[in-house]
Amino acid sequence: MFTLNLSGKEACFAFLNRLQLIERATNLFDNKTLAIHPASTIYGNFTAGQRAEMNVSDKTIRISVGLESISDLYQDIVQAL
Fold first, then answer.
1. Rounded distance, CA 77 to CA 41, Å?
2. What single DSSP character describes residue 41?
3. What is the pLDDT of residue 59?
4. Contacts 24+ apart (CB under 8 A), 24-28
5. Spatial distance between the Cα atoms of 57 and 39, rounded to a whole number of angstroms
6. 40: exposed, middle or buried (C-beta count within 10 Å: 0-12, 13-18, 19+)?
7. In angstroms, rounded to a whole number, what is the distance separating the alpha carbons of residues 57 and 76?
8. 66 in Cβ contact with 36 (< 8 Å)
9. Measured between alpha carbons, how far is 54 from 43 in angstroms, rounded to an integer?
10. Using CA atoms, how far apart are residues 49 and 30, in angstroms rounded to an integer?
11. Burial class (CB in 10 A: 0-12, 13-18, 19+), 12
12. pLDDT, tens digit, for every residue of 48-71?
């Protein structure tokens, strides 16, 4: 599991939309690599103030790494950025 902080919420959604191998998910911990925007999914029902108090940023993507080749995952992330 690791996180990426991008320039903003729109950049996060654009990144997720450009991923080709890594799948967008609403949950994590699978045998395949999954990416999620926690602020709009897991913490989507919280106000912006509550998310700020919990240090949940609109700029963060969380990636749970599965069993795919590291080089394939790296290439997917690089092309999506």
1. 20
2. T
3. 97
4. 25/64, 28/1, 28/62, 28/64
5. 6
6. middle
7. 23
8. no
9. 10
10. 31
11. buried
12. 999 999 999 999 999 999 999 999
Starting from the edge strand earliest in sequence, which strands make up the sheet with 2-5, in order? 2-5, 60-64, 34-36, 23-24
- Residue 25 has a pLDDT of 85
pLDDT value for 30: 77
Q: If you search the block for the tokens 């599965």, which residue do you land on?
A: 66
Backbone angles phi, psi at 76, to 5 degrees: -65, -45
Contact 37, 15 (CB under 8 A): no
Q: Report whether 81 contacts 26 (CB < 8 A).
A: no
SS3 64: strand
pLDDT digits (tens, 9 = 90+) for 21-35: 999 986 667 789 999
Tokens encoding 38: 């926690």
